[in-house]
Amino acid sequence: MSKITGAQAIIKCLQEEGVDIIFGFPGGAVIDLYDELMDCPIKHVLVRHEQGAVHAADGLARATGKVGVALLTSGPGATNGVTGIATAYLDSIPIVVFTGQVPRALIGNDAFQEVDIVGITRPCTKHNYLVSDPDELVSTIREAFYLAASGRPGPVLIDLPKDVVASMMDFPDPEPIRMKTYQPKVKPHPGQVEKACKAFLQAKRPVLYIGGGVILANASKELTELAEKTQTPVTMTLMGLGGFPGTNPLSMGMLGMHGSYASNMMVSESDLLIAVGARFDDRVTGRLDAFAPHAKIVHIDVDPTSISKNVGVDIPIVADCKHALQAVNDWLENSADFDSAAMAENHQPWIDRVMDWDKKHPLSYQEEGDVIKPQYVVETLNKLTNGDAIITTEVGQNQMWAAQFYKFNKPRRLLTSGGLGTMGYGLPAAIGAKLAFPDMTVIDVAGDGSIQMNIQELATAKQYGAKVKVAILNNNYLGMVRQWQELFYNRRYSATVMEVTPDFVALAAAYGAVGLRATKKDEVEPVIKEALATDNLVIMDFSISREEGVFPMVPAGKATTEMLLV
Amino acid sequence: MKHTLSILLQNKPGALSRVTGLFSGRGFNIESLCVAETLDPKVSSMTLVTWGSDSIIEQINKQLHKLIDVIKVTDISEGEYVEREMVIIRVKAEAGTRAEVLRVIDIFRGKVVDVSPNTYSVEITGPESKIKAVVDILRPIGIKEIIRTGTIAMARAPKK
Ligand SMILES: Cc1ncc(C[n+]2csc(CCOP(=O)(O)OP(=O)(O)O)c2C)c(N)n1
Ligand SMILES: [Mg+2]
């Protein structure tokens, strides 16, 4: 077998994994790899900041379900990527990040642009590697892709010393990956499935509480089947939105801190809470001892560490969500005790009660003449895109309004930084999604603060024809923090007033994009229509009611039934 | 409650810091930690003594399993096991106390491993309770320095 360079081997590995786009930024430590990239069919997208590269790879991964790839140089290139890596880690997103490293002989010498990125990212990657032997390069990359995508997905980092990339090596044939220390459990234990199903048959007030795991496992179909045939109301975490159709009558929307009234009430009164691919995050549970106090809890999750971490679980099922839900569906179908119609009838009083909560306190907001309400902007986006766009968000109020008022009917349509809450995520993630799906409408619902954190990626979008639409809900505030200050700090707006904000319309023009502005309610619809019809990158700047709040709101540390309402 | 975990892990660079980083990052306790190669040079074994409520110990167990470099975790304090720790103590040994030190060492089956004009360095091996007893007795005589290995432990072989 003829030898090839490390750089060539890396490219061959990427092709083997079916990677056609990578996001990166060059530098001395990765220059050999960049040289090789020039002549290969893989498309390299040159971002303007490494954080953008990692978010874009992450956005592509969330939208497609494939592994996203980013390539960064050593030192500052690698450290700039850390926020992106941590963002992917907290939301269990499969990405592989390659970082350049100084040559092996210099490691540990405080060489130029040397950092211990493996040490730095150890707590925010699923696993990471420093390739210290050229003969391990290929097997390491294959293992990294396998780790990133399997079990509970997550980011994997591979640190590549420059001389390893330049050295000559064999390219062994791929073989099935077997790791004796890593065997994620895919199939559920039949005994646990039976226990869960029997509890289901007994329940009078069941609730399905679903999280991002349903989306990661592509289990929406199985989940929908289960909810419908048992007539069980569904509530979703921020990460779970789209895992069950938002317009299905059984959907009660999001739960938790900014969840719907009906969602939080039904969890607190339910007698059986079936958590699927969710992790009982503090933003969901509120005060722990008051969370689902009457419910027996079934928890389906691929990661055993998520089970009974915050809330004691009665019936754990460690398995891939898709397999587990399929097994539950099959068990019920084959059980003489299960009759869909009878169960629906049995659950009807409960459904009525839930619907009643929803009717009493639906998600709502107050109209204010011709002032633009942010919720109205999101509703209009929803209407004009038929609820069928890919929506990315920044972080803060904009994110919550997008989650509350856009009706996500399909999985992989909401790309948002849930776990880490990273301002600056939305634009680069939108670019990643748009390049993966050029024919889809991709909208970044943004805040005036967050958008400035990675605004430089407008140039990337322009360069690669990623015609995303940015909708800035401009309140001239770091609005979410301001809301906390309003409610809990005597309206002392310390450092949340954006005293200088760029003219976003002029800024759009500077980047070769189209800028549109709406300052009155009746301008909202025309602006969105024009944006959607424009064959270019567009920024929409909506001057919204400045001190609008996100409601309902469960104050931190309170029970989820103690909601502040509109 | 105190738990003694026996952990097998891949003998790879950074594997140890993945374990210790897990404990510091998640606020778990480490009372002692011993690590060395096994018969298979690709595998290290670690004895880690920790404490916490049942749910914390369960999390520790699961989180350790989740580390890619970890092969196996056993909470050996759940069953019968033997534990040993070694300590080297440099204790004052002056005219008036020399005989007393030797007598104590003898009772605990220790050994003198180094001598200076006014100190003895003694080596003692045993379970933690024994080490504690020796230290308590030698302390009034005057301990100059003490180095402990931390506990190593092994589950007892099944009796049949
Ligand atoms: C990188 C980062 N820094 C700080 C925060 C804390 N934070 C959360 S929301 C928010 C305000 C965001 O302001 P803006 O983007 O204008 O959104 P709005 O809430 O006004 O819609 C801040 C500062 C964060 N989430 N991420
Ligand atoms: Mg704002």
Would you mind describing this structure in some detail?
The complex is a heterodimer of chains A (566) and B (160). Chain A has 22 helices and 20 strands. With 566 residues, chain A is an alpha/beta fold. Chain A has a 6-stranded parallel beta sheet with strand order 3-2-4-5-7-6, sandwiched between helices. Chain B is α+β, with helices and mostly antiparallel strands and 160 residues long. Chain B has helices at residues 15-25, 54-66, 98-107, 128-142, and strands at residues 2-10, 32-37, 43-51, 70-75, 81-92, 111-116, 119-126, 143-148, 152-155. In chain B, the strands form 2 sheets. In chain B, strands 5, 6, 7, 8 and 9 form a 5-stranded antiparallel beta sheet that branches. A 4-stranded antiparallel beta sheet of chain B has the order 2-3-1-4, covered by helices on one side. The mean pLDDT of chain B is 96. The interface between A and B is medium-sized, with 19 and 18 residues. The complex binds thiamine diphosphate and magnesium ion. Residues 447-449, 475, 477-479 of chain A line the site of magnesium ion.
